[in-house]
Amino acid sequence: MRYRVSHSTRYDYAAPVSLCHNEARLTPRRLTWQLPEPTRLTVTPVPAVLQTRRDVFGNEVNYFSVQEIHQSLTVTAETCLSTGPRPQPPAVGAWEAVRATSRERVACRPYQLDSPFVARHAALRDFAAISFTPGRPLLEAAAELNQRIFEGFLYDPGYTTLATPVLDVLEARRGVCQDFAHLMVGCLRSLGLAARYVSGYLETRPPPGQPRLVGADASHAWSALYLPSWGWLEFDPTNGTLPGERHLITGWGRDYGDVPPLKGVMSGGGSHALEVAVDVEPLAVDPA
Questions:
Q1: What percentage of the chain reaches a pLDDT higher than 90?
Q2: What sequence ranges are listed for the domain Transglutaminase-like (predicted)?
Q3: pTM reported for the whole predicted model
Q4: CA 213, CA 6: separation in Å to the nearest integer?
């Protein structure tokens, strides 16, 4: 598949802003199954400083500083990329054996411990234990947990915020993709497994006969589970699926706090209005 992705964020401030410093994580990652072209980042007003670096998780971060007085800020990232099928995981044994092996890998530790948005808890462990019965194959148990979240939780954009605790989502049985990704990550970590949060986009398709609505797509989030000697297997609990060619990855980390599309600090401004528009446009593939 081939796509053009556009992610635009606009802030309108109640009062002038004299200075702002920001970080954008909007560049798709280069992977064996995902090949992005260079991202074009447009910031208005034009920043005085614009630099690129890699964070500790390997995500590309664009830092910029606007040092003139302004009352609105627009940040737009545009990328064309091609995607292919994900690698298929090997057969994996009992989940307890995988847990023991994962604990021996230093690189897995950040994804096994508590993080700001996801803390291990007995309630999460008990919820996961329904699927993770003793001796059950890891992939079979994880797939069932993924499906249980999909079938048992209501997608409700009006219920949660960025600050809603995972335990509240578990109790209310509702939330959005970010909440469900955090929930699955928390369940896996509470069992002692290594799990991370994945951020990106998902191509949405209109009903038959209906046109695409430009800007109607949104950021998406899902989870990934570490398989020793193979890598990370992704799960999308919001849709009860394994991510495929329509899932486009921008970054990953311990939780949402490691991969927000845009964050920053400013001097002045007061309150603000926020407008976000995301468009994931399928492109024709050149047969050549």
A1: 84
A2: 169-239
A3: 0.94
A4: 13
